[in-house]
Amino acid sequence: MSVLEIRNLHATVEGNGILKGVNLTLRSGEIHALMGPNGSGKSTLAYVIAGHPHYEVTEGDILIDGESILEMEADERTKAGLFLAFQYPVAVPGVSVANFLRTAVSNVRGYTEKATNGNGANNGHSGVIGSNLMPMREFRRELNDKMKEYNVDPSFARRYLNDGFSGGEKKRTEVLQMAMLEPRFAILDESDSGLDIDALRVVSDGINKLATEDRGFLMITHYSRILNYVRPHFVSIFYGGRIVKTGGMELALLLEEKGYGWVEQEFGTVTA
Ligand SMILES: Nc1ncnc2c1ncn2[C@@H]1O[C@H](COP(=O)(O)OP(=O)(O)O)[C@@H](O)[C@H]1O
Ligand SMILES: [Mg+2]
To answer: What residues does the ion ligand 2 have nearby, CB within 5 Å?
Structure first.
């Protein structure tokens, strides 16, 4: 059992206060949906949790099992079991999906340390290809199995990451990444945006398969559509840089029916 805790989190980007006291507890086995209007700071929250250097935490804390992760770099947070699927995944021409995943998996599973002599210095094999990566055959076998399991076409392994991918292909690739990295906490930012109904099904099936007892999900979404496929235990409304209300699926349905206008009326005056 793991716990991700966000305590009174305040954060700025380029001097502008965006997060204004976010409180959220996510336990393994839970799916927590975070719904809010555009510009309310949802993606900012995701970036701050992931450790994006552009964002500055000015107050509050983020903890995994009681330990603050604020001082950790983004890759250390990944190692600690955090996974973030971005709203706008960037294309990386020149880096294949397979190579990207092999590097990421090797980092998370500690192959990088295994190639050093223990005091931080390299044992002389630095720069030797394969010295700090998961063995190719082992990796390939696992990648093929997971591609089959999560309905990703095998040709994707050779394609450049997100380069010319459709919205649905990007999101499927993220599910594959999650399946390979096996994070303790996954934060999915608008995983449903730009998906047609078939792609939404595939992506939702993947998330449901990965939503096991030992993993927590924070599903950031503007629309309640995906929540009809991936059922949340909790739904929180995010507005003005903080959570203003938490409940169950009925909140998502209320937003579906009434939109976000009433949220602004009820919680409109937010001060830092
Ligand atoms: N790099 C940035 N520089 C300045 N302002 C930003 C930056 N990124 C986001 N913001 C501002 O932060 C607010 C929240 O944005 P965002 O977190 O993307 O909201 P959401 O994901 O809920 O739509 C917006 O007003 C946006 O303009
Ligand atoms: Mg966003």
So the answer is: 42-43, 87
Decide: residue 239, CB within 10 A, 0-12 exposed, 13-18 middle, 19+ buried. buried
> Which ligand has the nearest atom to the CA of 238?
1
DSSP assigned state of 86: -
Choices 3.30.1360.40, 3.40.50.150, 3.40.50.300, 3.90.420.10: CATH for 3-85+164-267? 3.40.50.300
The pTM score is: 0.90
CA distance 84 to 187: 5
Ligand 1 site residues, Cβ closer than 6 angstroms:
13-14, 16, 18, 36, 38-44
In the reported structure, the alpha carbon of residue 123 is separated from the centroid of ligand 1 by a whole-number distance in angstroms of 44
**In the Cβ-directed half-sphere of 269, how many Cα atoms lie within 13 Å?**
0
List residues bridging with 63 in a β-sheet. Answer: 5, 68
What's the pLDDT at 168?
87
Q: Using an 8 Å Cβ cutoff, are 179 and 149 in contact?
A: yes
**Cα–Cα distances in Å, from 124 out to 115, 127, 133, 225?**
9, 9, 15, 53
Length of the chain in residues, anyone? 272
Spell 17-33 as b/e; 16+ CB within 10 A means b.
Answer: bbbbbbebebebebbbb
pLDDT digits (tens, 9 = 90+) for 8-33: 999 999 999 999 999 999 999 999 99
Q: What are the sequence ranges of the domains in the chain?
A: 3-85+164-267, 92-161
Where would I find the H helices in the chain?
42-50, 74-79, 97-108, 111-114, 136-149, 167-181, 197-210, 249-258, 261-267
Closest CA to ligand 1's atom 18:
43
